[in-house]
Amino acid sequence: MSALLELLRKTSALSGGNAAFIEDLYERYLQDPGSIDEAWRKRFDSLVLVKESANEPADIAHGPVRSNFARLAKEKRPASKFATERISPAGAEKQAAVLRLINAWRVRSHQHANLDPLLLREREEVPDTDPAYHRLADSDMDTIFNTGSLFAPDRMPLREILNLVAEVYGGNVGSEYMHITDTRQKRWIQKRVEGYRAKPELDTNDQRWLLTLLTAAEGLEKYLHTRYVGQKRFSLEGGESLIPLLDELVQRAGTNGIKEIVIGMAHRGRLNVLTNILGKPPSELFMEFEGKKSPDQFRSMGDVKYHMGFSTDIETPGGFSHVVLGFNPSHLEIINPVIEGSVRARQQRREDRTGDEVLPVQIHGDSAFAGQGVVMETLQMSQARGYSTGGTVHIVVNNQIGFTTSHPMDTRSTLYCTDVGKMVQAPIFHVNGDDPEAVLFVTRLALDFRQKFHKDVIIDLVCYRRHGHNEADEPAVTQPHMYQKIRRLPTTRSNYSDKLIAAGAITPEESLSMVEDYRSSLEQNSVVARPTLQDLEYPYHVNWEPYRHTGWEHPVETTISDERLFKLSDSLLVLPEEFELHPRVAKIMQERHKMASGDQLVDWGFGETLAYASLVDEGHPIRLSGQDCGRGTFFHRHAVLHNQLNGESYIPLQHLSEDQANFLVIDSLLSEEAVLGFEYGYATAEPNALTIWEAQFGDFANGAQVVIDQFISAGGSKWGLYCGLTMFLPHGYEGQGAEHSSARLERYLQLCAEQNIQVCVPTTPAQVFHMLRRQMLRPMRKPLVVMTPKSLLRHRLATSPLEDFTSGSFQPVMKEVDDLDPAEVERIIVCSGKVYYELLEARRTRGMRDVAIIRLEQLYPFPRGQFDQVINQYPNVKTLIWCQEEPQNQGAWDQIKHRFHTQLDLGKKLYYVGRQASAAPAVGYYPLHVEQQETLIDEALTGRINPSMNRRTPEE
């Protein structure tokens, strides 16, 4: 404490009369250094003691500080610039109260800001913002106080301080940012909102343009409402300020050097954004309302008009910006991770590592933002390695009602629908949608924050919905009070027009002319948005033409030469100096040395790694993500090695050669839905990379079923999108119970149609090698779903010799491996996956020569020609058996049995062998699992199928 006292003696401002004031400052400094004036912060920064024993900062006890002020005051040192006059203890207490009052306005005033255009609820009283709460009276209003860290003159009367904070924090903008722990970010926001008084700088031309945009937003909805009566359009009425918000966002982003903006948005207001922001020709929109299609849409089945995407190039003061609105199904908020993945791919294509050139924008609904878990998952990715996109601008179109029949208080447990954003310390700016100028202010503020700090930021556009959930809905049935107010409420455009007329910025005639001009443009089918650029030479455009009009049977060479194989193997097995592996990993690497030399057959992990090495060596980037995919859930991959000496990691696939493509492997956060959505979005924007998502267990993909149903299986059919995403789903019955046996193969096969996806079940390392190379090298981009193994990763028979990598190709059908006489074969077992090896070993043990076992390695598209060719090699076969581990109502059976009709036409009988139908994928008792497995193996080999088990199902 003596060192502290010596510092205090040298500081004349720290007089006894200022004790309460300074102690309050010091307490605030300890909690948040950025909350006090910079000069005081530097002074307190200097009060750091140094321990004699170590060069480490020591804590300063601040409790005894006040007791020393009186003694220090007796020294009567001259005043410094920090105190122009001596403050009495009572005055110091008042000063401290003023600073607490300012802080209260910063922290809590958003709760009673004027945010609701409908005035449905009384503005909340917040005691902290009342001077009386801090023992400040009317008699103090004209007293001059220090303003502390407020961005204002150093000293002001309390009355003016109150007016300032009320104007900044209690008007039509409610700012939430004091939850942020980074002082720089808080001070930056304070400077912007307090320095500009939460108002934009607009001249008359700016105001006229703002009115023009509101005219367009309102005009389109009214036009559609009268021309297409009763049709769903999910109008923007009540939230028209979204259009000037997006216009300002695009223009300011372009000015700041952003070259691409990718927008994710649900259906409400989508048609308005397409027409008035992106410049979609009204004629195309009208054709969609009339059930017609433009010629370029015939490559897909199409979708409802308010799910369709669009892209355009918009001119801005900083040059053109390529603006994309992503295709989106009705599943709320599921577009969020898809957009982030697309943005990440675009940023990597530009080598935009910080997100300065590509901006993601997400437009949410209020209740969906609060209620959908994928929002939290996507926010959690925002700063995670491998998923960050440099910050997203989130816009919540807050209609203040989740669904027409719901009560707003039933939609969440939080104060605001945006509270989930606080988990990533995103600033949140609530703004009254009926004040378009305030909307422009927070738009500029939000974008500039994102560009400055590369973090997510949220705009809560508080508005209302003039109609029900859709235009055929009658909202007053369940929300009578709200809709009585809405029907009496002038529109946002009307209010703003009246304001400008009153200010002399426009005349009533000019306002009316804007309305008429916009309607005339619609009737003439003229583009009503800002001018867009046509036939632009876009340097980062992806040319999808090579991937169109290609078939499954397109020939592709997937082998590599012996020389390349040995070279890649050597590079994969070189470690840095002083790199010590864990003993178990060291053993695996020793075995891989033997595999590379041909002394040991190649296992699954090394075969997969060779596929990656060959592709990146040829210039094809690879992105592999999932939970624990660096090591591999089942301890097989070890793409990332860890030094046991210092914990540093090393990825051999990143060190093959100087000119290789990038290999990125990411252990994802514990999410399926958002991460799979992200990888899908990445793959749709980057066809030149092999993008893989691996489930920790195959059944975990259940958590991402919306992504699978709405995007992966149907995106090509609905929207004409190409996507080469690969999914690894560990699958196989090893007695691990209902949750960790089945990847739900039946669900993927049920989704198969129109050549939309590939479903494969490879059983050898060479097969997975050729399959992955085929996926990348074949000029076709369709999703690949792979049932990957668990026990086969180390099965002694699930191996491949080196020559299988330097010759051959992926085989959709794998023929019998033993040397059987075709004439002696009377029965053929057809199967997929792990059960093959159990059948093979059991047949060999029994010495059976009359049963052949055929593997289907590609279940869809079904390889009919190859399948029939293999079966027809056996002239005396009368019985086909489909054998599977899964229950009868699951697995491939119901989706595969009709594929055998050509063989049935030749007189063969088809039987099912497997587990009985079951509600759960597998039993939970290991002994029962073993009994079931032995039974189905025996029945398949002998043909002695127990009728009481209800598994004999001949297909005539």
From TrEMBL:
<dbReference type="InterPro" id="IPR011603">
    <property type="entry name" value="2oxoglutarate_DH_E1"/>
</dbReference>
<comment type="function">
    <text>E1 component of the 2-oxoglutarate dehydrogenase (OGDH) complex which catalyzes the decarboxylation of 2-oxoglutarate, the first step in the conversion of 2-oxoglutarate to succinyl-CoA and CO(2).</text>
</comment>
<dbReference type="GO" id="GO:0030976">
    <property type="term" value="F:thiamine pyrophosphate binding"/>
</dbReference>
<dbReference type="Pfam" id="PF16870">
    <property type="entry name" value="OxoGdeHyase_C"/>
</dbReference>
<comment type="similarity">
    <text>Belongs to the alpha-ketoglutarate dehydrogenase family.</text>
</comment>
<dbReference type="GO" id="GO:0045252">
    <property type="term" value="C:oxoglutarate dehydrogenase complex"/>
</dbReference>
<dbReference type="GO" id="GO:0006096">
    <property type="term" value="P:glycolytic process"/>
</dbReference>
<keyword id="KW-0324">Glycolysis</keyword>
<keyword id="KW-0786">Thiamine pyrophosphate</keyword>
<dbReference type="Pfam" id="PF00676">
    <property type="entry name" value="E1_dh"/>
</dbReference>
<dbReference type="GO" id="GO:0004591">
    <property type="term" value="F:oxoglutarate dehydrogenase (succinyl-transferring) activity"/>
</dbReference>
<dbReference type="InterPro" id="IPR001017">
    <property type="entry name" value="DH_E1"/>
</dbReference>
<dbReference type="Pfam" id="PF16078">
    <property type="entry name" value="2-oxogl_dehyd_N"/>
</dbReference>
<dbReference type="GO" id="GO:0005829">
    <property type="term" value="C:cytosol"/>
</dbReference>
<dbReference type="InterPro" id="IPR029061">
    <property type="entry name" value="THDP-binding"/>
</dbReference>
<dbReference type="InterPro" id="IPR032106">
    <property type="entry name" value="2-oxogl_dehyd_N"/>
</dbReference>
<dbReference type="InterPro" id="IPR031717">
    <property type="entry name" value="ODO-1/KGD_C"/>
</dbReference>
<feature type="domain" description="Transketolase-like pyrimidine-binding">
    <location>
        <begin position="602"/>
        <end position="795"/>
    </location>
</feature>
<dbReference type="InterPro" id="IPR005475">
    <property type="entry name" value="Transketolase-like_Pyr-bd"/>
</dbReference>
<dbReference type="Pfam" id="PF02779">
    <property type="entry name" value="Transket_pyr"/>
</dbReference>
<comment type="subunit">
    <text>Homodimer. Part of the 2-oxoglutarate dehydrogenase (OGDH) complex composed of E1 (2-oxoglutarate dehydrogenase), E2 (dihydrolipoamide succinyltransferase) and E3 (dihydrolipoamide dehydrogenase); the complex contains multiple copies of the three enzymatic components (E1, E2 and E3).</text>
</comment>
<dbReference type="InterPro" id="IPR042179">
    <property type="entry name" value="KGD_C_sf"/>
</dbReference>
<dbReference type="GO" id="GO:0006099">
    <property type="term" value="P:tricarboxylic acid cycle"/>
</dbReference>
<protein>
    <recommendedName>
        <fullName>2-oxoglutarate dehydrogenase E1 component</fullName>
        <ecNumber>1.2.4.2</ecNumber>
    </recommendedName>
</protein>
<keyword id="KW-0560">Oxidoreductase</keyword>
